[in-house]
Amino acid sequence: MHRTGALFGQFETLEQQKDTASLGMWIFLVTEVMFFGGIMLAYTINRHTYFHAFAMGSKTLSLTLGGTNTVVLLASSFTMAMGVWSAQVGKKKLLPVFLTLTIVLGFVFFGIKYVEYAQKFHHHLVPGRNFDITYCVNNPTRCEDMSAEEIKAERVELEEAQAADPDLNAHAQLYYSAYFGMTGLHALHMIIGAGLLFWLLGQSLKGRFSPEWNTPVDLVGLYWHFVDIVWIYLFPLLYLIDRHN
Amino acid sequence: MSTVSTTMGEPALKLPEKHYLNASYGIRSWLLTTDHKRIALLYLASVTFFFFIGGFFAMMIRLHLLTPSGYLLSADTYNRMFTMHGVAMIFFFLIPSIPAVLGNFLIPLMIGAKDLAFPKINLLSWYIYIIGGCFTLYSMVSGGLDTGWTFYTPLSTVYSNSAVAPAVVGIFITGFSSILTGLNFLVTVHTMRAPGMTWFRLPLFVWAHYATSVVMILGTPVVAITLALAAMERLFGLGFFNPAMGGDPILFQHLFWFYSHPAVYIMILPSMGVISELIPTFARKKLFGYHFVAAASLAIAVIGFLVWTHHMFLTGQSTYAALAFSFLTFLVAIPSAVKVFNWTATLFGGSISFDTPMLYAFGFLGLFLIGGLTGLFLGCLGVDMHVHDTYFVVAHFHYIMVGGAVMGYLGGLHFWWPKITGRMYPEWLARIAALVLFVGFNLTFFPQFVLGYLGMPRRYHVYPPEFQVYNVMSTAGASILAVGYLLPMIYLTWAAFYGRVAGNNPWPATGLEWTTASPPPTENFEVTPVVTWEAYDFHNRPELGLDVPGTPSGVVAPAHGHD
Hints:
The complex is a heterodimer. By secondary structure, chain A is mainly α.
């Protein structure tokens, strides 16, 4: 049995089938909002309680990498939207192109995320026994990817934060719990999305989608945009705390 | 005289030639089925399995508490017993029981659809349940679990030496089965109703499941992320709930109860839906105040989300928060009471028959009333100080969950058993079992109200000698209760194969599910039904063969021919 827009047995009309699928996807996205809502609540409360540690943690992230990833994801949302449009107007040649572009941008995101995660492991910024927010300041030679000015600036920030919060190291771990928890969950959703995009690509190369039937493209599009929107929230929440000076 | 009578001279009823049970054979036809009716039976077998696992742990608890010093188990083992009892019963029996078994089977039939909106997702949800169940069973056999079913941190994340991680992962996974079931029901009710089945012609069972599904999709993801964070904290050292890192255990409690209080309504709302079907059928009368009962289901679902900190009155939260949540807790009693009053009002002037499902409905009414009212005691700040974490609480929630939810589940199983299997259960045996259950239940749990009031804390493996008489009563009751559960399991299984053939509509009842064959064909209806009547309308349904058209509402013919 393959899915070329045939009517499934439980439905009376194609229109009913499409409405049903689309309602199902929207309800699924509601559950996703609640899912991310739980961890965002944990983030909010801890940021409120340990603001200095969260601001310090945020300053150890790279704005360049995070900002680039934001642009990459926004671009992938655009290519996805173009893909949905191609499917709707029946541009069968264009659809695989846009799906491929979306996948490529998704993988660029993963690549940059990998660089960021590796850096955090390297800098002893992963919650656990070896967590040390002062590691790079105290061992500048071990953090060769940071310039002397960066280390110097971080030392000043660190001293201010330590003055404001004597238990900075413990509380900075909470920031990094939030960082890895939230970006990790987001990345997991991206991986699932990438899998779905590969499946769509295969189907589109077989010419399965038409203006009459393109529900899967539509639904995966919704999902992909949702995952992007989550990042639109994560970027300021994690990268932009107290960055005004 | 109803259609089931097999008096001499009438032709004996026969099962339909082709139905969903004999449409195909073999293990593959069950494990790969997308038929909602078969998936319901898969769920029936799985939740029954977990029910008896949970029941075994309960028996261990009650046997141990027979003497004040506790003669059977070590303190550590006792902790594991009550924890695993709670985990098995709540996450693997009560939450899926009515929705995934009866709801799955009946919602498409009741709204005149061929299946749920997403049959494959329905099957997927069963597999997810089974995978989650396997993780949890693994935790049970690999050292057990001793944190209490609530998994409070930092006990569960830092200090406990038991198999917490696999259990948490199992419950996390099973949550998605619940989410998918809720999603499927919501979409089905929105898009799959037959012509003429307007929103206000839906049976109240469907309304109750609609409200339940809202709770499932809004609440379950929150407990999923909470348990995921707790698991990551235990496995990888994240720190949100760990006071040593400045994290907040109370935050875990807030997040946990944000789901787990509404989860109580996942358990009780479907049961209320069953009762709303049973009472009109066996009082042979239109349900009093249909719109109010439907709205009450939604109101319970909404207000149910706003009461969670009443589990945390003694955690040192602000007095004003406690006052607000106490008030909201009282508020949620109003829609529940609306339902109880409307069911009772339906009985007034009805033609009541005492078939087994109705006995369960009566049991539900009485026990839910006690359970609900003692809930108000607990929602009252001053009283809660006194009885918090005592057996009073244990008795209260067992009156709701066993006296309410399980009574409704069993009543529903009996009521729809002729539809599910095409065969009747043995009526008198079933009535006796219902009575045994009722007596056993009250003997088990009523003494616990007294114990709690006198100050016996819950979850302790020993107690002062003066409490022994109540504990002996409770343990004796539990033994009777066990018989009461074994009986239906045995005779319902027997009846599925050897019971008297029931016919399409043995009671008779008014729902759309009774207009098709018993057991129904795979596609549910030969032709898509067109609904022209209101719910529970006995008067404009000449095809039911009741001698009531034109009878003014009030006393009508008795429900059951052979009574």
